[in-house]
Write a structure and sequence with these properties.
2 helices, mainly alpha, calcium
Length: about 70
Amino acid sequence: MASVYGDLDGDGEVDVFDLILMRKAVENGDTERFEAADLNCDGVIDSDDLTYHSEYLHGIRKTLPVEY
């Protein structure tokens, strides 16, 4: 079974709880364990990915990368 980008807590849903985990990881520099957080697929998990995730949750972006 493939994992879905944006689903950091592994519950099968991309939601605000994943965004909270991503924000904490970016703030603490602890991003290496969250491969699913690289939403813009540039090899770096940073504020750009946080923005991407937030835009997805607010309906601004209609899709996320499908799987990693």
